[in-house]
Automatic annotation (TrEMBL):
Annotated signal sequence range: none
Protein's UniProt name: Putative tick metalloprotease
Organism: Ixodes ricinus (Common tick)
Molecular function via GO: metalloendopeptidase activity
Record carries keyword Protease: yes
Entry annotated with the keyword Hydrolase: yes
Superkingdom, natural source: Eukaryota
Pfam families, A to Z: Reprolysin
Domain called Peptidase M12B: residue spans: 39-165
Keywords for the protein's UniProt record, in alphabetical order: Hydrolase, Metalloprotease, Protease
Organismal lineage: Eukaryota, Metazoa, Ecdysozoa, Arthropoda, Chelicerata
A Gene Ontology biological process term: proteolysis
Length: 217
């Protein structure tokens, strides 16, 4: 939500309605993976379509506008080589095909930016690859880089999507009372019950030293 807060018209507010941990048996239904030299990658094109079909069969998601699959598998797109290396979704599909994929290591919350990009993509925002909004700028829809703002192209696209549907009964107007508020807390707060330092390097796990905020007695 912080990545999208610069949008003023419309103003975008996101609500987390739930988190589901999928089982291996479920993942076998919608994940298309390839293994080569002990390295397993995810085929995002096929997985996105199969994940969308799987979501439609689940009553848990029937009131949700967007459902994301977060995965620690790296993406390898055999169909194309798009600008989005760590996220996939249907363009302008928030109220029809509101599913997305995003890579997240599971320890660094690095999937946050990929989810934010895909939400904007599903709301009709193109990638910043034009002369007016070049890829080299540090904007949300430019890749790679750390975004500092929304480009004019993104803001205009979000306004266009909103204005086209302002008087229609679209999914984002069906506001649900359920949801979770962040209370402006930071992702690292969720690691208070475990060694935060140990999550930074899976191959060299160590404990935070005494005196560190995340030291465990």
């Amino acid at each position: 939500e912080l990545y999208l807060q610069k949008s003023r018209c419309p103003k975008i507010k996101l609500f987390l309605t739930g988190v589901k941990e999928t089982m291996k048996e479920e993942e076998l239904i919608f994940e298309k993976t390839d293994t080569e030299d002990k390295r397993t990658t995810l085929d995002p094109t096929f997985t996105l379509g199969m994940f969308e079909e799987w979501v439609r069969t689940k009553d848990d998601f029937k009131n949700d506008s967007i459902v994301f699959l977060l995965t620690s598998l790296m993406f390898y797109d055999q169909v194309g080589n798009g600008i989005s290396k760590h996220g996939y979704s249907y363009f302008n599909g928030v109220c029809s095909l509101g599913v997305g994929l995003a890579y997240d290591s599971g320890s660094r919350f690095d999937g946050v930016i990929h989810v934010a990009q895909q939400i904007a993509h599903m709301l009709g925002s193109p990638w910043d690859t034009t002369n007016d909004c070049p890829e080299g700028n540090r904007t949300l829809m430019a890749s790679p880089g750390t975004p500092h703002r929304l480009s004019n192209c993104t803001e205009e696209a979000l306004r266009k999507t909103y204005n086209q549907h302002v008087n229609k009964n679209v999914c984002w107007r069906k506001f649900q009372s359920i949801g979770s508020s962040s209370n402006r807390s930071l992702p690292a707060n969720y690691f208070r019950t475990e060694s935060y330092c140990a999550t930074r390097n899976a191959n060299a796990v160590y404990e935070c030293p005494a005196g560190h905020d995340y030291h465990i007695e």
